Amino acid sequence: MPSPSSTLATLRPDLSASLEEFDLAADRAGFIGLRALPVVDVARQAGTFGKIPIEQLLENRETKRAPGGGYARSEWTFTSASYACEEHGAEEPVDDREARMYADYFDAELVSAARALDVVLRNQEKRVADLLFDAATYTGASLTLAVTNEWDSNHKTDAVPLNDVEYAVQKVWDNTGLWPNAIVFNRKVFRALRNLDQIKDRIAAAGAGYPTRAADITVEQLAQCFDLPFVLVAGSAKNSANEGQDASIAQIWSDEYAWIGRIATSRDFREPCVGRVFHWTEDGSQVGGAVESYRDEPVRSDIVRVRHDVDEVVLYTECGFLLSNITTAA
Q: Which among 60, 102, 132, 144 would be 20 to 30 A from 6, CA to CA?
């Protein structure tokens, strides 16, 4: 049974609004999970739905109508797919005495809310990264390729990222009849790409001048180089060490991979894309984290909680292609 205090949780829109301007972690802007897997709100916590096989989306049908006759109607079949939203949350206590001790220096309640929010969103970013950068999912020549020359400074002159990405683009087209619209890699890979001769030469040939510094090369220029509308650069980090151990900092999105594929650009659930985040709204969840607080009197603390109810689901694996061996292992 929950304690009486914890059942009286109160939504805190004031803290939610403040968190929009409060930057606990500078790399929060590096979270790209919800851009790679856009959100679809659902009315049920779990469910099964019919998914149209990708090949039927481009099925050839007769459209000619004879006088007095009817029009051709679709006879699509469906494969079964499902989702099951799970609640994720984190709590931070705001001790009465500590809040008063440090009141002149910072707002303890706001800091606690920001810490809890960061934990929830960072864990969701990990889950999305694990889905898209999953070597066990993308297997076989039609879904993955280990590049010959890594995209880092050790291969400045012989790396051919434009060729590698174009190969992946063509493979997605072959698999689906749909052109990819996105490439995903982490910030370490982004910084490596800016030093490669093939990238700098392509930018110069496009008439943008010759970039003399890596810092002159932007995400927008890379999008033009790859001829892909969306270049998603993941900048967030994780501490992979267990609690109590020395920190072991690593990128959430691995240096080893770059993902090319089709991401959703609308809320239309029928749009073919690699996947979506299912968000159950009926229990007060907010996709960016519902902020609540309740009183825990035995420890003289206000408890700040952030939670959301979500499931990250890959819908069409064939809408993606995974390039591996992107950088030399450190």
A: 102
